[in-house]
Predict the 3D structure of the following.
Amino acid sequence: MLTHQEETRALFRQRFAEPLPISLRALLASAPLDGITLDRNPDPGREVDL
């Protein structure tokens, strides 16, 4: 039989366990990007006074 402290620790471990590592590629593939514009204007650069 678990003590109150042991039970609490077990619940916290279940609730706040670290997520499984996932690759960036898999994370981006699963991202909901519908309706988001991913295009951007090319950088025209800026004038530098030398």
